[in-house]
């Protein structure tokens, strides 16, 4: 399994295989179900409970900071985060928009972090690629940090003609 990759449009079979592979590698697997999350406040609370954030937080910037750390969990083998219920949801779109930055941060820490998004539509793909391009642009700035840049995004099913994957 490649570290620091965002998989989108995953179906049940390949998703189950990815989870099993992650567990065999000693990675901690989290399933984030956004289906019944009403707004960003509820999302922050949900993620705080799921990941056991060590202190109270507000907002998605704080979510990004704490998800980029997870030191209190203490797993150096890495993490797999499975995201469900993100399609047709403004909360899902907001959460997905964090992923390229999140993966870039884990890559700089050299701890594997993989996200698998169950399903996905053109809106989510567009959000991922837009955020990823911004990371690439920032990484090219003369004063930018040397280790900042775009992350790998794998679109399963290849409906969009991008980086085909054998499932």
* Measured distance between first and last alpha carbons: 13 Å
The tally of helices reads 5
Largest β sheet strand count, sense and barrel closure: 5 strands, parallel
Q: Percentage of helical residues? A: 40-55%
Q: How many E-type strands?
A: 5
Q: Order of strands across the widest beta sheet?
A: 2-3-4-1-5
Mean pLDDT: 89
Globally, the shape reads globular
Notes on the protein architecture:
The chain is α/β, with parallel strands linked by helices. It is built from 5 helices and 5 strands, in the order E-H-E-H-H-E-H-E-H-E. The chain has helices at 12-24, 40-51, 60-67, 90-109, 122-140; strands at residues 5-10, 28-33, 79-84, 113-118, 152-155. It has a 5-stranded parallel β-sheet, sandwiched between helices. Helix 4 links the parallel strand 3 and strand 4. Helix 3 (60-67) runs parallel beside helix 4 and helix 4 packs parallel to helix 5 (122-140). The longest helix is centred in the middle third of the chain and has 20 residues, at 90-109. Residues 160-167 have low confidence and may be disordered.
């Amino acid at each position: 399994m490649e570290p620091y990759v965002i998989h989108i449009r995953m179906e049940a079979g390949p998703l189950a295989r990815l989870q099993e592979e992650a567990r065999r590698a000693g990675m901690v697997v989290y399933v984030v179900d956004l289906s019944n999350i009403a707004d960003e406040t509820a999302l922050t609370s949900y993620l705080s409970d799921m990941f056991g954030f060590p202190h109270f937080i507000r907002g998605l910037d704080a979510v990004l900071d704490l998800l980029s750390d997870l030191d209190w969990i203490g797993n150096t083998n890495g993490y797999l985060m499975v995201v469900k219920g993100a399609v047709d949801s403004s909360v899902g779109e907001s959460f997905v928009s964090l992923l390229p930055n999140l993966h870039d941060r884990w890559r700089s820490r050299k701890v594997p972090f993989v996200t698998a998004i169950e399903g996905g539509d053109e809106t989510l793909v567009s959000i991922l690629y837009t955020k990823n391009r911004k990371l690439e642009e920032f990484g090219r700035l003369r004063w930018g940090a040397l280790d900042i840049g775009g992350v790998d995004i794998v679109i399963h099913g290849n409906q969009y003609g991008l980086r085909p994957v054998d499932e």
